[in-house]
Amino acid sequence: MIDILNLSKTFNPGTISGVAALSDITRMAEHKRAKYIGRVFQNPFSGTAPDMSIAENIALADRRGQRGNLHLALTPAIVSSFRDRVIPLARELEDRLHSPIGKLSGGQRQALTLLMASWIKPKLLLLDKYTAALDPKTAARVIQLTREVVNKDRLTTLMVTHSMQQAVNMGDRILMLHKGRIVHDMKGQEKQRLKSGDLLTLFDEIRKREQIDPAAAEMIDQLYV
Question: Which of 24, 30, 163, 176 shows its CA 20 to 30 Å from the CA of 78?
């Protein structure tokens, strides 16, 4: 689903529209829609150019969706502005802006990828299981950074996660999918009351339903749903 929303995979039929105040972007060129959609991948080593410096990677994010032209991308003033925004991510990163981003730890790269994806305040931020490859302490730090970025810039965000705790603790709406279809849509007070165990119970109910004979399942739907 994340790949479809980002239009990095084709699909038929359908269009992508009405997302975070976007018009129909289905046939928009990739470089044009880049300024509207930011994405953080599951793999911390995706979404950045490892042989380029931290500052050069951020410069690419800063120019995302803009027309290309010939000028200096990294002036002292620009690097200084980058340093101010990098400081909250992790200690000492502000002094390593000219170091290759490939030398950073997975957690540091994921934090920088989050910063880059939200740099120009996209209309839609996609988070694709982006803490799954991190250790618990680093994942918690990246989650906290996410809250700060999303709340500060009021970004519409779609997060895919297999963590029940993340699902109940973050955001204001939960969509539970099964075989490509939405089977539960929880928001408002219903979402606020949810605990991780409640989601696990819903998943168990889905599994049990699949074990029932199709004719019996249809009868149950007619009688009780």
Answer: 30
